[in-house]
Amino acid sequence: MQLQDILFSQGFGTRRVCAGLVQQGWVSVYQPDSPEPAQCLDASMDFAVEGLRLRVQGVDWPYHAKAYLMLHKPAGTECSQKPSAHPSVYTLLPAPLRQRPAKGALSGVQAVGRLDQDTTGLLLLSDDGQFIHRMSSPKKHVPKVYQVTTKHPVDAQQIKRLLAGVVLDDDPKPVLAAACVQQDACRIDLTLTEGKYHQVKRMIAAVGNRVEALHRSRIGDLELPEDLAPGQWRWLNVDELALLT
Ligand code: URA
Predict the structure, then answer these.
(1) Residues designated catalytic
(2) Using CA atoms, how far apart are residues 73 and 231, in angstroms rounded to an integer?
(3) Which helix (H) or strand (E) holds 206?
(4) How many alpha carbons lie under 13 Å from residue 149 in its C-beta half-sphere?
């Protein structure tokens, strides 16, 4: 693939901008077995993309045909591109990830579902529409684990009701937790396989309690890694992606 097309595919701007980056000497390419990248001034030079690593404007960038990321969402951020009151989670990502070409536009990666502004934890992002659909479709029943801190102690009756199903105001069909494990008097791990609006908070309210803090710790078999601090993101590796597909 030509270098300008590679840069375009990775979100470095329009083809014209990408060609300009190369011609101005901002792009170097790692050759196999070479610890240092070599500058390339020819935007139409061909490179094999498999395992390719670039350095663009001083920053190393591994080539990814599709982007699959995890982000540790901090509290006080919104999952919308156009947030209303708090910074968007997208501002935590580098610019190329926000302008990768997708569906004919430079729209970048999208969050797989949304978490509330005050919810923390594991958020997936991708530019692969099928992956986003698969992971977020209620029909696929991908389990998500939420660590819930409640205002009042959770009793056995409340756990029984969460597992049996509670009716939320807008839907006559009861929603239920796939699992509910008590960790502490005011701490439960709740596993849900749907993603209705404010679902955890509304389920907890429906059994007469209240959510004080909410953290998503797992999606499918993928656990939020302990070494990923709030606000940090990273590419999913092959093994992690395999856990989800
Ligand atoms: N349920 C909620 O109530 N909020 C979230 O952010 C996620 C699930």
Answers:
(1) 116
(2) 6
(3) helix 199-206
(4) 7
What domains are there in the chain, each with its CATH number? Answer: 3-62 (3.10.290.10), 68-138+222-242 (3.30.70.580), 143-219 (3.30.70.1560)
User: Closest ligand 1 atom to the C-alpha of 195?
Assistant: 8
Number of H helices, E strands in the chain: 7, 15
d(C-alpha 92, C-alpha 53), whole Å? 22
First to last CA, the chain: 28
Closest CA to 242 of 218, 221, 225, 217: 221
Chunk the chain into consecutive blocks of 10 residues (it has 245) and report each block's average pLDDT, rounded to whole numbers.
97 96 98 88 96 96 97 98 95 96 86 97 96 88 96 98 92 93 98 93 97 98 97 97 91
Q: What whole-number distance in Å separates Cα of residue 68 and Cα of residue 131?
A: 9
Within 6 A (CB) of ligand 1 lie 115-116, 119, 198-201, 214
Q: For ligand 1, what atom is nearest to the CA of residue 203?
A: 3
202 Cα–ligand 1 center, Å: 9
Which residue lies with its CA nearest to atom 4 of ligand 1? 198
Phi and psi at 232, nearest 5°, equal: -90, 155
The CA 190 to ligand 1 mean position distance, Å, reads 11
Q: What is the pTM of this model?
A: 0.94
Residue 139's pLDDT is what? 82
> Token match 């580098």: residue?
94
What is the maximum span of the chain, computed from C-alpha positions, in angstroms?
69
Look up residue 133 and give its two tokens: 């659909």
Q: How far is the centre of ligand 1, averaged over its atoms, from the C-alpha of 206 (Å)?
A: 14
